[in-house]
Amino acid sequence: MEDFSQLPDEELWARAASHDGGAFGELFERHADTVYNHCFRRTASWAVAEDLTSVVFLEAWRRRRQVQFHGESVLPWLLAVANNAIRNSDRSFRRYRRLLAKLPRPVAIPDQSEEAIGRVDDERTMRNVLQAFERLSPQDQEIVSLCDWTGLGYEEAALALDVPIGTVRSRLSRARARLREQLGQTVVSTDTNKDESMEGES
Amino acid sequence: MIEQLPPTRRLPTARRYAARRQLEELVSSRWAPRRRRRFILGIAIFAVVGSAATGITLLRSSPVTDRTTARCYTTAAVGSGETFSGTTIGVLGAPGSTGQVDNAIANCSDLWRQGFLLQGKSGMQRPSPNTSNPVPPLVACTLPSGIAGVFPGDQSTCTQLGLPLAGQ
Question: Which region holds residue B56: left if phi is over 0, alpha if psi is between -120 and 50, else beta?
Answer without folding.
Answer: alpha
